[in-house]
Amino acid sequence: MQWEDGRITHIETLLKDGVTYGSLFSGSEAGLLWEMENDNMAVLRRNEKRIVVHMGSRIAEVDGREVDMGSEPVRYISHLYVPIRFLASVLDGEVANRDTKTGKVTVTGLNNYTDAFYGSMMGYSYMIRAAKGDLEITGAYTGQKTTIPLGIKDINVNTHDLTLNFKWTPKNLLIVTIEYSNRKTGDYDLYALVFKNQGMIRKSVAHGLMEQHEILKSDGTIQLIDDKNIRIIDDGSGDVLEVITR
Asked: Is 20 left (phi over 0), alpha (psi -120 to 50) or beta?
């Protein structure tokens, strides 16, 4: 199985009555969550994506539409198998090749439907929803939520990587960095947020970087980079010590 995000995975297939089946639960590789709602109905879902398969029926539900799978699903050794062509199509891919000698089937163009990215630090959870592009911070004990606009538009997990990293400074400021990188070109956007006592005191955004930028310097200062300037920040107070034009 070849994914749009560059991954290649392998799954067991089942051949029955001339039809090749693939495990429905391999949809978890696409970022979908699966569950058996009852003994006869399996569901894969994530955000607006929803796939429902009924035992004993070749009619499935895909995003609210009825779709004929061609054959009924098959249960075999704790797996639920569906026709491989159906599995490929509902993940926005296609069967590209079938080797009749080995039985190997190649499926390409599969999409990833991951819709959120997570991180945690010192009793707080950090989440970025792909549909919004903002940073949502939730206190684990209080449940209090804070949203920080980032301006990340059209997050595409099939072409880009998004990572959250956390670093404490010697004087107990928390630096949260978010890198949104293009797998093909190698450039990335860098979002840096500086927190003091759980409150954000500094923020910077730089687009199209090609080299790694060291935010916490060996001299104890913090360097925040944006599209025009580099700000030298004092550790502890968060004051701006100097502004350097890029």
From this structure: beta
- pLDDT tens digits for range 10-30: 888 899 998 999 999 888 888
In whole angstroms, how far apart are CA 209 and each of 41, 179, 191? 47, 10, 11
Identify the three-state secondary structure at position 24: helix
Nearest to 145 by CA among 161, 117, 124: 124
Report the half-sphere exposure of 230 (CA within 13 A, side-chain side): 12
Residue 9: other Cβ atoms inside 10 A: 12
Give the Cβ contact number of residue 60 at 10 Å: 21
Per-residue pLDDT tens digits for 149-166: 998 887 888 888 899 999
Contact 119, 166 (CB under 8 A): yes
Q: Which two tokens stand for residue 144?
A: 């209090």
Output the CATH code of domain 13-108: 3.30.457.10
Residue 128, token pair as written in the block: 């970025």
